[in-house]
Amino acid sequence: MVSDIKERLVSAGVQPTRIRLALARIIFDGEHKHITAHEALAALQKRNLRPSLASVYNTLNHFHEMGLLGRVTIDGGSARFDTRLEPHHHIYNEDTGELTDISADSVTVKGRPRMPRGSKLKSVDVIFRIGSKG
Question: Three-class SS of residue 120?
Answer without folding.
Answer: coil
